[in-house]
Amino acid sequence: xxxxxxxxxxxxxxxxxxxxxxxxxxxxxxxxxxxxxxxxxxxxxxxxxxxxxxxxxxxxxxxxxxxxxxxxxxxxxxxxxxxxxxxxxxxxxxxxxxxxxxxxxxxxxxxxxxxxxxxxxxxxxxxxxxxxxxxxxxxxxxxxxxxxxxxxxxxxxxxxxxxxxxxxxxxxxxxxxxxxxxxxxxxxxxxxxxxxxxxxxx
Amino acid sequence: xxxxxxxxxxxxxxxxxxxxxxxxxxxxxxxxxxxxxxxxxxxxxxxxxxxxxxxxxxxxxxxxxxxxxxxxxxxxxxxxxxxxxxxxxxxxxxxxxxxxxxxxxxxxxxxxxxxxxxxxxxxxxxxxxxxxxxxxxxxxxxxxxxxxxxxxxxxxxxxxxxxxxxxxxxxxxxxxxxxxxxxxxxxxxxxxxxxxxxxx
Lengths: 202, 200
Prior knowledge:
With 202 residues, chain A is mainly α.
């Protein structure tokens, strides 16, 4: 069996193959490689450290307890992000009141449906609670991300924080390519407006 | 060059660093259009801000917590292989020269066996002959040993009966003898247990 110092140099596919043979160090290596990206994605989605730790833990448990179901044609990181996104979205649905979108129904498929189901809040600026959030999420851009609807948030984070291509995001999130492009375009637009608003205030 | 202002999708194309025939006119337009340049710069501020976001770390005990709850699944063929390796490992010599010697011996034995098998496959008639000789020798040795044992235990008539009796009668006799042994063993054990009980 490959010792740990060698495991660190192996590509993801080989580490997964070792994990599928029941090698515990390979499990640990997978967690070591992806704990930060997965946690970052989930934390920025739910904006609560305790929940994010639990959801990131759920993500790894779901992945590692079913490592035999992993298909090598899928990138390991994409597989983990897919699970992470699903657990985060499920969590947000459960506390829908706190995260209800101001940009229309999550089920709206077309621009007109989004318009029809959207509503205006008195202010879409970050709340006082957001401002008191841990300093990790306290920057202007982080607070602007928090104002996005969850679908936009996962797409924009995967595109610009994780550096994934549009095609990869579409595969990972099970969305049509056109929808991913629309979400990212809209997310950029909303972030631009939020940042411009902050600059104007200053 | 494009003579109208860029559409939002076209600004996205420039932001994403797309390349191709359609992108060059957009870039040329931006160079000469301060409004579109400003729109692109503003969009870049957002992208730069997003791309400079750090990765956030979970608590230090995160990995241990995950691993304490993971069920490590070991496929049966890996478990069998690991058990075999674990069973053989203590038998392996620790000294390097002895290991080398054993390895060389194993290799030589494997080479000789392979050569013999290849030779026999090439000379099937000889293989059949050697097999029949071996069978005759082995069966002769077994019957001699059995006769000697029977003669020692039950006398010369038993040895003669063993040598000349039919196979079915012989098998029946052996079975009867075996059953008699088992009954005797059970009786002896019962007597021994009864004695132990009476002593206690």
